[in-house]
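tool=predict chain=A
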Amino acid sequence: MADRRSITENFYSESPKWHEMIGKIYALLERVTISEERSSDVLKLRKLNRIMSIHASTAIEGNMLTLEQVTDVINGAPVWGPPKDIKEVQNAWHAYNEMNEYNPWNYEHLLKAHAAMTDSLINESGAFRSVDVAVVGSDGRILHKGSSPEDVPDLVKELLGWGKESEVHPLIKSSAVHYMIEHIHPFRDGNGRIGRLWQTLILSQWNPLFAWMPVETLIHHNQRQYYKALRDSNRNELNCRPFIDFMLNVIEDSLHKYINIPSEENVGVNVGVNVGVKEAILKMIENDPNVSAKDIAVAVGRSGRTVERYIKELREQGILKRIGSDKKGEWQIVE
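tool=predict ok
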C-alpha cells in the first residue's frame, strides 16, 4: 500500500458557480429560520420531514414500504410488509435520531452509525467489509468496483482526516465526503444510506437546520440524476465535481421545499405548496409520477378517500391522466 495514491489528492475540481450557489443557500437558510418561526408546530414539521427522509433513503436502496407504512413503523403501529424492510426503517430511524452523538470525523462513530443502520440485517454490521464488492447495473455490467478491502480502513481514516482538517466550505465538504464514501464503498451493504446520513450529519453540525431538511427526499425524487452524478464523477478519472454540482442543487431545492411548507393545520407538510390539496397532489406527482394515492394522503394530511376524489376530479378536468395499469403505471400531468 506504500505506493497507493492519496484518496484525497485532487479528487475534485472547483466550479466557478459554486460561490453563487452557496450564496443562494445562505439566503434560503435565513428564510427557513423565518418559516419555522411562523410555523404553528415546528416539532411535528421536523418529525414528518425526518420520516420523509428515512422513507426516501431506504426506498433508494429498494425498500418497498410506502410512506404510509414507514410512518406506521416509526409510530409503533403494526405493519404488514417484508420484515427486512421494516427492520431497515426501524434502524434508520434510530441512526438518524442518534446524529447528535456522532462526530463526523471519527471513524469509530462511522462504524457505530453503520451498526445502527444495519443491525440484524448483515453479517458485518458495524465493521468494514472483508470482501471485494462491485456495483452492478441492471444489465449485469460492473459500474464501479469498491476499493480493496485491505485498503478500506486507511482510506476511510484518510478521508475523515481530510474532512476534519480541510477549510473547504461544509456544503462542498459534505458532498465530497458523501461521494467518497460511495466511491470507497467501505461496507458490505448500507453504503448509500450511510453516505447520505453522513452528509446530513456534516451539514447539521454546520447549521442545525439541516438535521430536518428533506435532502434525502429530493435525492429520491431525482434518483436517476443521483446515480448519473455518481457515474460521471468517476467516468475517466476521479473527479467528484459533477456530484457536488448535483448535491448543491438538491440542497437548494430542499430549502425551497421547506420554506414553502404550510403551517396551517391539516395541510401537508412535505409537498412544498400552500395553495390547496389539488395543487399539492399535482406537485407530488410532478416530483414522483409513481407516487401512490395512499402516500399522497399521508403527505397532505387528508383521508385516502378524499385524495381519490380529488384525483378523480383532476382526471375528469383533463389535468391528470394515468399511463398504464393501476399497479404498474404512472401519473402524467397534461400540460
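The chain has two domains: 18-259, 277-333. The domain at 18-259 is CATH 1.10.3290.10 (Fic-like fold).
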